Amino acid sequence: MTFARLYWISRNFIKYWSPVILWMGVIFWMSSGMFSSENTSHIIIPLLGYLFPSFSPQTLELIHGLIRKTGHVTEYFILGLFFFRAFRGASLQPWSLRWSIYAITGVALYALSDEFHQSFVATRDASIVDVGIDSAGGVLSQIAITLWNFHCWK
Question: What is the pLDDT of residues 78-91, one digit of tens each?
């Protein structure tokens, strides 16, 4: 393999895969105890109580849970976008079902590994439901990419 070819491969790897790896690091960091429900509730619930003083404590807890699950979907939606971009690479083709399937698979596998990681964090719980929620974020990202590309093709 020539130096020029090796340089091109490494440059493209960095260009397309470093966002995936960096975002995985962000998700890993957010899976720490610092972002556990127990810790975020000390910030979010009082803020919600201030903004909506007539809401019951149960309603505030429900909203807190919805905000956290929306965070899961958003994190993995972004990861799905990055995976698609990485699998697409330098291709001139705008969309491929194969890239979307690979992206969804990557998101689901990382979601599983993230929940496994959380099983070792004292203030976190591993949940197969969260794997499903995370994977839904990856699926939604691929739906958005597909709709965007089919809209642009018209």
Answer: 999 999 999 999 99
Mind giving me the DSSP string for 11-49?
HHHHHHHHHHHHHHHHHHHHTSGGGSHHHHHHHHHHHHH
> Of 112, 104, 107, 113, nearest to 131 (Cα)?
112
Confidence band (pLDDT; 50, 70, 90) for 74? very high
The C-alpha angle 123, 39, 54, rounded to 5 degrees, equals 130
Residue with tokens 């966002």: 19
Tell if the pTM clears 0.70, that is, is over it. Answer: yes
Number of alpha carbons in the 13 Å side-chain half-sphere of residue 13: 6
